[in-house]
Write a structure and sequence with these properties.
Keywords: Repeat, TPR repeat. The protein has helices at residues 2-14, 23-35, 39-52, 57-69, 73-87, 93-105, 108-121, 128-137, 151-169, 173-186, 191-203, 207-220, 225-237, 241-251, 259-271, 275-284, 294-306, 310-323. It is mainly α.
Length: 335
């Protein structure tokens, strides 16, 4: 009798159909976490979905949107560019998502190109009004259809930007300089690279050359934000008080629309002793757009500590160390 029962139990067990999660299951879980703004968990689910179906562009696009929400715009753009390369015009929304990311990065020429491409291909699409608003926001009134560009160049530029960003954030000046010198030759229209080059040059020890180069850039564009942030910092470090005051005060009434530029001003104030102004600017930032920057945590925590908020400083520092383990190798703001 016991023998018969055991056989029946085995038969029942063998009839259980194991649950094998599919890419769609992981994708749905990822979207659910994303809607709850649990971005770390959403990325884990989306990574599993992509592992299950590496060629599914829908999974890749959703992952890029999560990266955008967390401020990792370069990473998001890498994914979107690969989707377009793999699928052609099948996922036209990628053009608008790229335009939006480039606008956040302050690369307005690139934002324009992608917004125009989206409207050309999908004039009545889901993002058409957003694309038109974006073009109005960056004060572009006419579509320049004559410029030729290809995704291989764009993809290469994104890789350069992402790698340079990593080196600059981690103060790896020599590595950044090497790549920036290549960028300036390959992509001369991207002026931001020239400002990043003088920044890296200054902190690698070539201060006079860096200042001279930045002054030349300022002469070409007297209202350039990056020239004023760089020169304020350079003159502060070299104790050139009159020149420093000229450039730091030029920044006091500038309130950019892009989070990366807002952060640049906030960190410049923090690094040069304008702590009250720095604190105000840090608090105005959209945190989700800047958490990929070590400098956000490094200088915001220092500012908070020096203004008498040690608990806030500690909280920022600990969060920064969790997101950017290399930060933990630095001394905290209280040292």
């Amino acid at each position: 009798m016991q023998h018969v029962e055991k056989k029946e139990n085995i038969a029942k067990t063998n009839n259980v159909i194991p649950f094998i999660p599919t890419g769609d299951f992981y994708f749905a879980k990822g979207v659910e976490s994303f809607r709850k703004r649990k971005f770390d968990r959403a990325l884990k689910w989306l990574n599993k979905a992509v592992e299950t179906a590496p060629n599914n562009p829908l999974y890749q696009c959703q992952m890029s949107i999560i990266y955008t929400e967390t401020g990792a715009f370069h990473k998001a753009n890498q994914i979107l560019t690969k989707v377009l390369q793999a699928t052609g015009d099948q996922y036209v929304d990628c053009y608008y998502l790229l335009a939006n990311n480039y606008a956040h990065l302050g690369l307005l020429n690139d934002a324009k190109k992608f917004a125009v491409s989206y409207l050309d291909k999908e004039p009545n699409g889901d993002f058409s009004e957003d694309a038109k608003s974006l073009l109005q926001l960056i004060d572009i009134d006419d579509y320049d259809d004559d410029e030729d560009w290809d995704f291989e160049d764009e993809d290469e530029l994104i890789v350069y930007q992402e790698t340079v960003f990593h080196h600059l954030e981690n103060k790896e000046w020599d590595k950044a300089i090497t790549l920036l010198e290549e960028m300036i030759v390959l992509f001369p229209e991207h002026k931001t690279a020239q400002h990043e080059y003088t920044h890296a040059l200054f902190f690698s020890g070539k201060q006079e050359e860096a200042i001279q180069r930045e002054l030349e850039l300022l002469e070409e564009d007297p209202n350039n934000l990056y020239s004023h942030t760089n020169l304020a910092l350079f003159y502060f470090e070299t104790k050139s008080e009159i020149e420093y005051q000229k450039h730091i005060r030029a920044l006091l009434n500038i309130y950019p629309i892009h989070e990366q530029q807002k952060l640049r001003i906030a960190t410049t104030f923090a690094r040069t002793g304008f702590l009250e102004e720095a604190y105000t600017r840090f608090r105005m930032l959209d945190k989700s757009a800047v958490i990929s920057h070590i400098s956000y945590y490094r200088w915001y925590s220092m500012t908070a500590y020096r203004l008498g908020e040690p608990s806030k400083a500690l909280s920022l520092w600990e969060e920064g160390c969790r997101r950017h383990p290399l930060l933990s190798e630095e001394t905290g703001p209280w040292m």
